[in-house]
Design goal:
The chain is α/β, with parallel strands linked by helices. The chain has one domain (about 5-65, about 140-260): 4-Layer Sandwich (Purple Acid Phosphatase, chain A, domain 2), CATH 3.60.21. The chain has helices spanning about 15-20, 45-55, 70-80, 90-100, 110-120, 125-130, 160-165, 170-175, 250-260; strands at about 5, 30-35, 60-65, 135-140, 145, 180, 200-205, 205-210, 220-225, 230-235, 240-245. Strands 3-2-1-9-10-11 form a 6-stranded mixed beta sheet. Strands 4-5-6-8-7 form a 5-stranded mixed beta sheet. A hairpin with a 3-residue loop joins strand 9 (about 220-225) and strand 10. The longest helix is centred in the first third of the chain and has 14 residues, at about 45-55. About 45% of the residues are buried.
């Protein structure tokens, strides 16, 4: 059995669907999304609907984590934070896609109207899906989180805030525990030493970053374990597959040997 792990989708529904067609996943294999299905891209509602249906059809083997962008949306609806509607998040695109109107904020009243609009326009099953998302997943191969860990602690001992938001250089450079796959921080912004050639994922010791960026030329990436095959889909329709052989954590090398992969 394999685990296929997909990085931050950010509304790129067409790329996500292409990627899902690429991967040779069987029903007994696990599929993990690292969160941030929404914001920035052209079709956040389509991404959410598709992943929700996948999870419902095979809940034991399709896992979608909560990302900080889903959390920002929930916080906005609940009235605890307005960061989701700031331009840097790309939340205005998700607002427009669900609400069918532009987001115009000039006053406190506009904020309250936007809050009511998005809460009413997002399908209830999508909101419930966001609220039900776990903060981490674990299987025999690795730990899976959206952003990172607190000084090498197990995710169960790490606060949800850190699991969603952390950008800890010590984790990127020095984490040596059970392999941990994460997204959140685009790999071009991670330490140079752990970046892997032209396919652009990050591996250093036991920290493995697969958010390969968000712009028109960035691939959406999926890494399979334990074989470390990388699948990537691009906005222009290109698809690439790479067999990763360098810097694989020792614990996963042992699993590969047991499975007869190396």
């Amino acid at each position: 059995m394999k685990t296929f792990v997909i990085g931050d989708v950010h509304g790129r529904c067409a790329q996500m669907l292409s990627l899902l067609k690429m991967i040779p996943r069987e029903e007994s294999d696990t599929l993990v999304f690292l969160g941030d299905l929404i914001d920035r891209g052209p079709d956040a509602p389509g991404c959410v609907a598709h992943v929700l249906n996948l999870a419902r059809s095979n809940p034991e083997h399709v896992i979608c984590l909560r990302g900080n962008h889903e959390q920002m949306l929930l916080d906005f609806i609940e009235g605890t934070s307005n960061i989701w509607i700031t331009p840097v998040t790309g939340g205005e695109r998700t607002f427009e896609q669900y609400a069918g109107q532009t987001l115009d904020i000039d006053s406190e009243m506009d904020i309250e109207e936007a809050r009511q609009t998005i809460e009413n326009k997002i399908p209830l099953e999508h909101l419930e899906f966001f609220r039900e998302r776990p903060f981490y997943h674990e299987d025999g191969y690795a730990l899976y989180v959206h952003a990172g860990l607190d000084h090498g602690k197990h995710p169960s001992e790490t606060s949800p805030q850190l699991l969603l938001w952390s950008r800890n250089m010590d984790f990127y450079k020095n984490y040596r525990g059970k392999p941990c796959l994460f997204g959140h921080t685009p790999t071009p912004f991670l330490p140079l030493r752990g970046r892997l050639g032209r396919h652009g994922i990050y591996i250093f010791h036991s920290a493995i970053g697969i958010d390969t960026g968000y712009n028109h030329s960035s691939p959406l990436s999926c890494l399979s374990l334990p074989d470390f095959t990388l699948y990537q889909s691009f906005a222009d329709g290109r698809e690439e597959t790479h067999q990763i052989t360098s810097f694989i954590p020792e614990t996963l090398k042992a699993m590969q040997m047991k499975a007869g992969i190396v």
